Amino acid sequence: MLPTNNIWRTPLVLIAYGVCAALSPRLLHTAEEPDSTTIVSPVDTSVATALPGKILTVSFRVTNTDAVSRRYRDSLTLPPAWKALARAEEYALQPGESSVRLLSFRISGETEAGDYTVTYSAGDTSRTAARCVRVASLKGLKLELLEAPVHVVAGRPYLVKYLLTNTGNAASGVQLSTNERRGSIVRLDSTALWLPPRSSRLISASVYPTDLPAVKEYRIVDLHAQAAEDSSIEASRSAGVTIIPASGPDNRRAYHWYNAFAAVRAAGQDGRSGAQGELFGAGSLDAEGAHKLRFMVRSPQLQQISMLGREDEYSARYETR
Predict the structure, then answer these.
(1) Helix/strand/coil percentages in the chain, nearest 5
(2) Most buried by CB count within 10 Å: which residue of 61, 67, 172, 261?
(3) Where are the beta strands (DSSP E) in 65-109?
(4) How far apart are CA 103 and CA 121, in angstroms?
């Protein structure tokens, strides 16, 4: 069961997506063979925009140019998982008569953002016309707490695991961050990533204590996710851990812990790739916590190669009391 103080929020916003791909001339122009006696054309040639899961109605005009009456049958070809809301209807047109056919269908709620083609046929594949439908993007992020220790001995590093989900129907870049609170430093296994629509990614936060509390303390580990393209798309989650003072005579331990972290990451974009190494350490140099050292070595710079890369960094800080 998740701690009651954990929070998350999943806002959704509507964002126009992409540019409608040009339909082929065969579909856009009136579908008429040299000896055809029927003209089929869309009433509106503009791009129709809708959300996943919504109902959309499109219209097509059918004209009988023959000298005799002709019979036709509605037929609508839809993308996979989309559903027509009416049965195919038969109708007759007198010579020179036209009919505007209104057809409704439901867009699948699982449809990814993009441009799709809806094709109408008047009962013969040679008599067709098409309409471009643009499915707009719904973007959202959700964070869940998967695993966190309830109690940790003071000075010992520990791991908190979260599940990040892209709840939208479009791929999104995500920036991750954490708030460093007193007495600990948090290192994420990823600070930037790319999530396909409706996919999830495990995020691990390694927590390195920098002090040795003499009494029991309750500490919070925060994680914040934000869409790279829109800062209003975000989600947050927190985990609470109780820190217990080290046991033993006079609270002394046989070993002293100094927390260090090493990583190698690789990233690539637009045909370029690179690797980066990182060595990080933070903590107390003595059992009393009177001397603290924090250092970072990260090289080479990787941000120019990929948005998932990080800047190079060389730093060290020593504190004493």
Answers:
(1) 0, 55, 45
(2) 172
(3) 70-73, 75-77, 83-84, 90-93, 98-106
(4) 12
Tokens of 83: 């559903």
Pairing between β-strand 38-42 and β-strand 55-64 as defined by DSSP bridges: antiparallel
Range of the domain at 280: 258-321
The whole-angstrom separation of Cα 26 and Cα 119 is 11
DSSP character at residue 210: -
**CA gap 172, 226 in Å, rounded:** 10
Residue 138 identity: L
pLDDT averaged per 10 residues in sequence order, the chain, 321 residues: 40 43 42 63 94 96 92 93 92 94 95 96 82 95 96 91 96 90 85 93 92 87 93 94 74 58 72 78 69 79 69 80 74
Residue of 147, 155, 148 lying closest to 244 (CA atoms): 155
Residues 187, 290, single domain; the answer is: no
Residue with tokens 């495990």: 202
Cα 132 to Cα 77, 113, 136, 260, distances in angstroms: 12, 13, 13, 56
Quote the pLDDT of residue 127: 83
State which amino acid sits at residue 318: Y
Structure tokens at 150: 């309830």
CATH number, residue 38:
2.60.40.10
Last residue of a domain, one of 104, 135, 166: 135
250 backbone dihedrals φ, ψ, rounded to 5°: 60, 25
Q: Which residue has the tokens 């471009």?
A: 132
Q: What is the pTM of this model?
A: 0.66
**For position 261, what pLDDT does the model report?**
65
Token representation of residue 4: 């009651």
